[in-house]
Amino acid sequence: MYRTTLIDAVQCEEKADIVFLIDSSGSVQETSAENWKLVLTFIGGIVNRLPVSRDEIRIGALEFSSDAITESILYLNNDLNKANLERTIGSMHHYGGNTNTAAALRMCRELMFHESKGHRAGVRSIAILLTDGISNVNSNATSSEARSLKQAGVQQFLTQ
After folding, report:
1. Is the N end or the C end of the chain the one with fewer CB atoms within 10 Å?
2. CA angle, corner 140, sides to 25 and 19, nearest 5?
3. 10 lies in a domain?
4. Following DSSP, what letter does each residue of 6-72 receive, concatenated?
């Protein structure tokens, strides 16, 4: 089986728009309060290894738990340099609650990959879903939302 890592996938590309969908549900910290920090550190490590800039790779982020959380959206047109982007993601708040993956996928498709929010036409679109488990809110819609996102031209990676 051939497995592609995110770093491998974008190293060959000159440009990409990448959005992290971050599970902020209560179960993330169930086994350890440090898990949330590990998730944010993992994202920071990816961001650090990529050529982040307005002209190369743009980074966005969306948190979700019982619903997609609009208060903490980081759009692709955020104009943060790499250090500030890592700091902003590293300081995201853990919300708790349930896991509504369908809402995150839908909001990613409807809000994140649009020109008005910094998405560039003709540039590779990548969504990275970071979750600790199975969606337990509106779970029957998760597969159809993932298909809709794929049909919109967004390549998806799942990290569990």
Report:
1. N
2. 50
3. no
4. HHHHHHT-S-EEEEEEEE-SGGGGTS-TTHHHHHHHHHHHHHHHS-BSSSSEEEEEEEESSSEEEEE
Q: Is residue 32 part of a domain?
A: yes
**Residue 40 in domain:** yes
Element (H, E) at 154: strand 154-159
pTM for the predicted model, two decimal places: 0.88
- Domain containing residue 95: 23-159
pLDDT tens digits for range 67-113 = 888 777 899 998 888 889 999 999 998 999 988 999 999 999 999 99
Query: C-alpha angle 109/113/1, rounded to 5°?
Result: 75
CA–CA gap between residue 105 and residue 126 (Å, rounded)? 12
